[in-house]
Hints:
The structure holds 2 protein chains of 2 kinds. By secondary structure, chain A is mainly α.
Amino acid sequence: MSNLEKYNQVFCEQFSLESGFDCEKVKMNDTADWDSIGHLNLISALEDVFGIMFETEDILSFDTYHRGIEILGKYGIEI
Amino acid sequence: MFLEIDKKDKNSIALIDSGDDCATYGEIIDFGASFYNCIKKRTLIFVLCSNCVGAVMGYLGSMMNRIVPLMLSDSMDSKQMENLIHIYRPEYIWKPENMVGDKEKVAFSGRSYALVSTGLSSYPLYEELSLLLTTSGSTGSPKLVRHSYENLEAQARNISEFFELDHKERPMVDLPINYTYGLSVLNSHLYSGATILLTSRNVLDLNYWAFLKKENATSFTNVPYSYEILKKLHVFQMELPSLKTFSQGGGKLNEELHKEFAEYALRTGRRFIVTYGQTEGSARMAYLPAEYAIKKCGSIGKAIPNGHLFLVDEDGKEIDEPNVVGEMVYQGPNVTLGYAKTGEDLILGDERHGILYTGDMVKRDEEGFYYIVGRKKRFLKLCGYRISLDECEDMIKAAFHIECACVGNDEYMNIYVTTMQDHDGIRKYISAKTKMNSNVFRVLYLERLPRNEAGKILYSKLQ
């Protein structure tokens, strides 16, 4: 599975999204279930899938689907 | 005067919010006088809250002048709000200016808030009735908890005593002030003459941390799941020089996390204080002193100052011996008057006489420390908020016309159903109704629900 597929799969599982979801619209406090608990679950799931540990600043600024891709880049995960 | 606010240094800052508004103790007194000049009598008012100076001013303006506020979230569902207005008939609503409709009559405004008169007249109010709060869950029940003036004074006095608060404290208050736990942090610090840092942002917001650091917050008070977030955020490695006290309440923190925070606090010269409370007991009733945080990990500690805890067995007889489970009973001046379910109930007097059966099943060790082992009443505290299992069951049954049984713990709820259809729909429905993340609900299939001969569901057989 490619990194993009893995990344999308985490979003689908965490926020009950259908595959092929509109990634432009996936935002914290906007997407259903992406509240503080959802965020904690999302971060933990991505850490597990990619074998990394996010720094505080990155957890706090990870607020959209696209921003997440940029942040993962810092950890050497190319999506 | 309420919380002896008139005895504080008038020029010292009482409130600062993350929207850059602030108020001194002197300004609170002056505001209270103008507020009263518009209302001029004892009556019922709704205060629509977010954690900002404007909301607190309306609350204090009411409390200082014997006007009775019902504190509600400003993001409350409008149907639920209309229902409460219909049932309780507030004469005024204090709400954010941007929520005022074109046709509404504004009697007074200040601090980005407005006092709107409803044209309704209040029901008669019991003379000692000071404040109304919803029970902490948000399933839409109109049931309110009636507080006396003495309840709130005792709450503020007792909490400031066991936390050893003084005017130098700068607590972060991000728990909603319409929630008993958040309000108790506000009241106890006002009583101590401290500077309260108000924000509606949460720990996952960059601005929350910017505010905390800029204002040199000295204490952090929060519910179990916020502690999970703090750990994820690597709080143990953060530079937080001003932050001296971490406190937790609003449900049971898992023991592992309790231990990690207790050890972190010990290592870094901080205090970690676990507390126990309910709306019916004006927030806190027990606390675990910081020096016992490690030794008595998992305990809720002992009764707060001026309070008394004991356990009773099924026949209501007091249990003397240690390590026996019984229902915990609290006795103290912060036990509230009782509930209101209708406007006519606002005239009711004290129905509890200082004694509260907590509904928590608890044991006490040889040294007198209390440990919660379960609940007698069927509710959970999810994310710090009380959720009634029976109410959830009733809502699901009515909406989906199915059999259903809800059980769980303070981390999640399991919803057992006898249908394989639409599990996702049930999860989303109950998530919307309770305003909780749908991931805290699990829908599980059973061919049939376990019942006794009389047809009653055997919850003990479900987990």
